[in-house]
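Weekly sync, protein design subgroup
Attendees: M.S., D.O., the rotation student, P.L. (late)

Item 1: inverse folding check
M.S. brought a backbone from last month's batch and wanted to see whether the design step gives back something sensible before we order anything. D.O. pointed out we never logged the input encoding, so this time it goes straight into the notes. Structure tokens as presented (878 positions):
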């Protein structure tokens, strides 16, 4: 609960705050219950810095002026007051959307509907103006659509704020009005504005409803204000031929630079909109009456214009256009807004025109993740409310919304300030096609679903034993490129599925394939090289050899290659390195020492033997993944698995004699096998399940073999177990609709820790064992993955959402309790996979065995390449 909600709830008994609805330039809006009257209300709290300038007495006195406004198109003011130095006012909570939401979704409105909305607003403004009340901040977000009728909100805030001291208001960094809808007098800093300001703003709103954007736009607020003051008049009819001349003339007059040249009242504007004979400005000159000489002169002028246009076209056709310059920029977010990579999809996505991008970053305050929008014209990114716990963003083809995953679901958010809508409850990373469909993978099958929601439709055959990481929609509904993981980045494959067949066909070895309009597939190798292969989108075939484009692109341990392409040809990528890694000891204070400097490979899932003298670890080879055991005195290493396939996730038997691991050596799915650590004998099949097994561990007494199922695209499932010699079917231990990962047992066998996303983001929980439903404790603070007990059972380690190794003191006897939490060291340099622990700790808990990529820095850079397609066409002509 936020501090503001706490203060309001504690000091004000009339309203019960439910949740925050949104934030504007001057106030934060909360949904609340009006306890006395039994109704939902919108409680708006003035920003503290603004309240300090206005003052409580002035605010409450001035706002009373608007309390008497009673009009069908004005949202009434219910209440206002001051609580604990917070100034607030209360209005009805309107179910539905704002005009801003409608325009963000539909871009333009039908002409008749736009005129009806504008006329209703004009009537409301005229009513208020005749009672001496000026709105001063008319804009689409302040027009709410209630039962298909527009109502204007926020009468009552602009008046008292503008009555405050202008100098002090400027010092706060806040200003009245939204730049796109500010009148020229507001743009020049004159706060003594009148009815003409509202008329100007209404003209802007009507223009946007018809054309699809405000009259004056720009890359910065300063540029917009400069155009408002100096730019030439606009014409809606020039932008949209169906706009009648009288409407165009009315907008021109409403947007005059000088207030005295505009309509004297909103009612006059409404009359002009209803009068088909009304004309004003250059677009209306000579329209009413045209004699024969006028028509001849117009015809000659039109012929001359056509000839001129033809000449220009011929000249341009004869000239070869100069290629646009390729330029590179470092767009790495600030530290407090830093990029956070996840195990699901790419952490960023550019807009279609390449002018901005969204990315997964650390949430404000440092807890968990959230989407941020970063425009290239600014140094700061803006957090997108409602996207907490987000991953794998994808921008809509029109740039007006973003899709993302959160808590296993695909959601969409209208930009800039909509509310999240769930499209699919359980799914993988989304791709947004130009056909209005969202594509995703689940259980080895590719689906599509309308972006507005609905029932997913399968479009591919099931891909057995390969994890679908990503899909990219080909243009014109011609099919999808798929990235399928068979083990590690080195073995991931790029495939295609066409529109007329559900067959999945392999194309290339690589990861995260995307189609470029130049006629190429752009993809990454395990070593971090961006490649391009010519591709026939009609035949769905690669037509030539691949060519290297960019080196040093980040490829993580989940085979996610962190790059993205915009429709306009911009490339956005995270810097990184190849897949070579080394094993290192890391002390509690972060000091690093190599285990064996001569031993580098693509390591995974290290596990120390019970006596601490040996290490079991998975190593990715050229064609297989195998389990190795190495002596830690820099002695020899032994390869345990010799028969191909993928063997991974080693764990020691309690006696330290053998190693249990997952493998698909004998069947398409992954089973559990055990082999002696000295390499002698044959592997023994421990568990043969119908569905794949993701990881396993033994209880300290060897009585239980516990494993996690793999039942969806993210490799996450339920934690189950079998008692040796007793259970013939798995016993559910932690099984829910959420994602449970990385189980670990306490040394005394009485407690089990694991990670789960049941609270939204990933957190660490502890339950008693084996009676796991008797109790549950939350252990982590602000996110956690990969838990591990210390050998003495007094500490529980985990990796935080902020990139740190954390130690928690715990008591386990006679009951479980959580003690102090300590941050040990930053572990951002070290391999981490939320689905399976990628470290171990010595018996004395003084040193951690970690996996570190060779040559990787702590803070990867985010690079933007503008006009990248020019470079692509030069290096790899199709």
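Designed sequence read out in the meeting:
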């Amino acid at each position: 609960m936020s501090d503001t909600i706490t203060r309001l709830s504690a000091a004000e008994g009339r309203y019960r705050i439910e949740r925050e609805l949104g934030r504007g330039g001057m106030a934060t809006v909360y949904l609340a219950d009006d306890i006395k009257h039994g109704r939902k209300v919108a409680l708006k709290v003035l920003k503290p810095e603004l309240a300090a300038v206005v003052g409580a007495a002035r605010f409450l006195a001035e706002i009373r002026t608007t309390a008497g406004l009673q009009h069908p198109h004005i949202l009434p003011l219910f209440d206002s007051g001051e609580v604990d130095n917070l100034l607030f006012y209360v209005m009805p909570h309107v179910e539905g959307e704002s005009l801003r939401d409608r325009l963000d979704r539909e871009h333009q409105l039908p002409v008749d509907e736009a005129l009806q909305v504008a006329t209703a607003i004009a009537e409301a403004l005229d009513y208020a103006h005749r009672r001496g009340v000026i709105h001063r901040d008319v804009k689409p977000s302040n027009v709410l659509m209630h039962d298909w009728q527009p109502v204007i909100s926020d009468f009552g805030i602009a008046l008292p704020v503008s009555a405050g001291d202008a100098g002090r208001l400027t010092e706060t960094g806040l200003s009245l009005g939204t730049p796109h809808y500010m009148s020229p007098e507001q743009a020049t800093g004159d706060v003594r504005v009148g009815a003409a300001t509202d008329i100007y703003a209404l003209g802007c709103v009507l223009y946007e409803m018809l054309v699809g954007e405000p009259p004056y736009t720009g890359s910065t607020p300063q540029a917009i204000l400069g155009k408002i003051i100096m730019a030439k008049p606009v014409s809606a009819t020039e932008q949209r031929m169906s706009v009648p001349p009288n409407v165009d003339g009315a907008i021109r007059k409403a947007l005059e630079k000088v207030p005295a040249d505009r309509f004297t009242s909103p009612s006059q504007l409404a009359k002009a909109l209803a009068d088909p004979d009304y004309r004003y400005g250059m677009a209306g000159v000579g329209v009413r009456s045209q004699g024969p000489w006028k028509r001849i002169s117009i015809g000659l002028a039109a012929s001359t214009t056509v000839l001129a246009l033809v000449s220009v076209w011929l000249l341009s056709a004869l000239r070869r256009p100069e290629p646009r310059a390729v330029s590179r920029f470092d767009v790495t977010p600030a530290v407090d807004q830093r990029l956070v990579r996840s195990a699901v999809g790419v952490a960023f996505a550019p807009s279609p025109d390449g002018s901005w991008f969204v990315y997964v970053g650390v949430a404000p305050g440092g807890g968990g993740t959230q989407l941020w929008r970063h425009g290239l014209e600014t140094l700061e990114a803006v957090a997108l409310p409602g996207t907490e716990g987000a991953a794998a963003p994808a921008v809509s083809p029109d740039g007006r919304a973003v899709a993302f995953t959160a808590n296993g679901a695909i959601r969409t958010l209208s930009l800039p300030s909509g509310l999240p809508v769930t499209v699919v409850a359980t799914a993988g990373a989304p791709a947004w096609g130009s056909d209005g469909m969202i594509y995703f993978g689940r259980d080895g099958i590719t689906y599509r679903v309308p972006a507005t929601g609905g029932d997913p439709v399968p479009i591919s055959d099931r891909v057995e034993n390969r994890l679908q990481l990503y899909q990219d929609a080909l243009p014109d509904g011609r099919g999808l490129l798929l990235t399928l993981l068979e083990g590690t980045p080195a073995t991931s494959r790029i495939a295609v599925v066409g529109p007329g067949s559900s067959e999945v066909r392999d194309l290339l070895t690589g990861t995260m394939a995307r189609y470029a309009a130049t006629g190429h597939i752009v993809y990454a190798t395990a070593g971090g090289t961006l490649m391009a292969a010519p591709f026939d989108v009609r035949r769905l075939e690669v037509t030539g050899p691949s060519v290297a484009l960019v080196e040093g692109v980040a490829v993580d341990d989940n085979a996610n290659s962190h790059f993205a392409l915009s429709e306009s040809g911009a490339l956005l990528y995270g810097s990184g390195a190849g897949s070579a890694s080394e094993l290192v000891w890391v002390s509690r204070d972060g000091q690093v020492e190599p285990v064996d400097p001569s031993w580098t490979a693509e390591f995974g899932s290290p596990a120390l033997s019970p006596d601490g003298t040996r290490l079991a670890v998975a190593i990715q080879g050229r064609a297989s993944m195998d389990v190795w055991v190495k002596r830690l005195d820099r002695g020899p290493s032994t390869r345990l698995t010799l028969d191909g396939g993928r063997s991974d996730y080693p764990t020691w038997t309690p006696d330290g004699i053998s190693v249990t691991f997952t493998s698909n050596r004998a069947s398409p799915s992954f089973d559990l096998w055990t082999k002696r650590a000295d390499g002698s004998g044959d592997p023994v099949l421990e568990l043969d399940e119908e569905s794949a097994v993701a990881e396993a561990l033994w209880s300290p007494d060897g009585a239980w073999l516990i494993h996690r199922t793999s039942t969806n695209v993210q490799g996450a499932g339920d934690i189950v177990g079998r008692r040796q010699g007793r259970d013939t079917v798995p016993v559910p231990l932690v099984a829910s609709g959420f994602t449970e990962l990385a189980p670990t047992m306490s040394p005394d066998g009485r407690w089990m820790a694991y990670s789960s996303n049941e609270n939204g983001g990933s957190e660490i929980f502890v339950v008693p064992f084996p009676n796991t439903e008797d109790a549950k404790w939350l252990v982590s603070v602000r996110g956690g993955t990969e838990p591990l007990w210390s050998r003495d059972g007094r500490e529980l380690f985990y990796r935080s959402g902020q990139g740190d190794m954390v130690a928690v003191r715990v008591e386990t006897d006679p009951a479980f309790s959580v003690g102090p939490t300590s941050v040990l060291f930053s572990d951002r340099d070290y391999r981490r996979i939320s689905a399976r622990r990628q470290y171990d700790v010595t018996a004395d808990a003084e040193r951690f065995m970690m996996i570190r990529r060779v040559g990787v820095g702590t803070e990867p850079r985010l690079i933007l390449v503008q006009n990248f397609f020019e470079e692509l066409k030069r290096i790899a002509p199709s």
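Discussion: The chain has a mean pLDDT of 81. The first strand starts at residue 15 and ends at 23.
Action: P.L. to compare against the previous round before Friday.
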